[in-house]
Amino acid sequence: MPKDSFGREIDYLRISLIDACNLRCVYCMPEHARFALLKDLLTAAQIESVARAAVSVGYRKFRLTGGEPTLRPDLVEIVERLAAVKGVGDLAMTTNAVTLPKLAHRLKQAGLKRVNVHLDSLDPQNLRQQMRWGSLEDIWAGIMAAEEAGLTPIKLNAVVAAGFNESDVVDLARLTIDRNWHVRFIELMPLGTGECAQLSIQRYVSNIETRRRIELALGPLMELSPTTLADESRNYRLANTRGIIGFISPVSAPYCGNCNRMRLTADGKFHLCLLNDDELDVKAALMNGGGQEKVAQILLKAVALKPTGHRLLQGRSTTERLMHQLGG
Ligand code: SAM
Ligand code: SF4
Fold this sequence. Notes:
By secondary structure, the chain is α/β, with parallel strands linked by helices.
């Protein structure tokens, strides 16, 4: 398994398929964001080549993300190609679920194992304010479609933002009472240098506060022991409930020491750490006919150069890309 210079095993590749999205969450992208042209993104075959190279050096865990990965016209083909790579043990996707009523069954058949769905609120108005073009009805229909297709266990991701949804965390947590879902609360991270970064700083809510709100309303949370150290979510359960409540706290409780992630951007760069700008280009090698060995070499170099420790508290983060260009 590839180890970085800090001794961390980096065996999880998050593949961004596209930077475009059908929603406009306020902390993720400006309403009039501009996107890369489809022709400039890695092709399905190139993505498969990177996955084969990653498997050859010990990667086993893969996640598709975006932007919104379901906007990629060849998504089903990409899933089929990746699922057919021997060694791709775990293939998951992070999505806003809006298109899942149409796609969930085909994705399951193609080999996708499960989905994480982004849902910030159960209050239709608050959700619309925060996820802008999103509607609770559409996202909920997508979650139901995913569950019905067996893209399980379902995980929900909610980003908590002051003045938008900080009191809605209780209703989201309540979903775990009679559903076997994993509801996770994410702290805002500032990326880029514009309005999204500013908003993410101004509306930041610590998960200490979110946990307090949930416990005040629903009772004490019992901590669960981690199934893997690399899980960025600290997990809990309310008494006598079916689901899990998780807290992803990059700001108040950084987990860089256990990071196992490498990111591939839709335009063909290994992005070494979510909260830094360092990248290594892999697209040029793919375009120049570089085979599996060349791509594996670049990936191992990317692992070796992976930094540790973010500088969010000093007000520094990734400046060159926004979250929709990285995938979370
Ligand atoms: N469109 C898909 C979705 O929303 O799940 C996949 C891509 S999205 C960039 C991945 C995750 O990033 C989502 O769970 C979203 O909530 C999270 N995210 C976006 N901007 C963020 C920010 N500024 N801070 C923390 N999380 C953020
Ligand atoms: Fe789209 Fe996901 Fe970004 Fe929201 S967080 S705008 S759903 S890419």
